[in-house]
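Appendix B. One record, verbatim.
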Amino acid sequence: MQTFFQKVYRLLKSNVMKLFPALLGEQSREFRFYKQYDRWYVDLPEWKGPKWHLEMVDGADDLLDLLKDDDKNDVVLYVSLEHFLGSSELIKTIDDAQGDGADYSYWNPINKKIQILWLCGVTSWYYGTMPERIYYRKVLD
């Protein structure tokens, strides 16, 4: 039989997880991104808002185009807030003035330049903050 405190803990944890899925859970995850009608989206079933919030824009779409295979319209990335072997890195450069996202930089090996992309507030919803660094690696088939 559960004690009162165990019930309260379970209820609080459940509600916190709904607000910030990664806050009490795993900081690493595979995310699938898919291209539909020339627009990239992240496949995030736990997101209950409108689909257009999940669209990858302002450079994030360019990174996904760079990572995808020519014959596919999706790419799966292993994403973590902790460095791991073989990972590439997004580094937060500027917070959006309205607090609904942040600019990140990454190294583009094709043109050998640092590129900028923007990640929206869904990132903050998922992690509970806009992380300073995000590490990723393409998951190979």
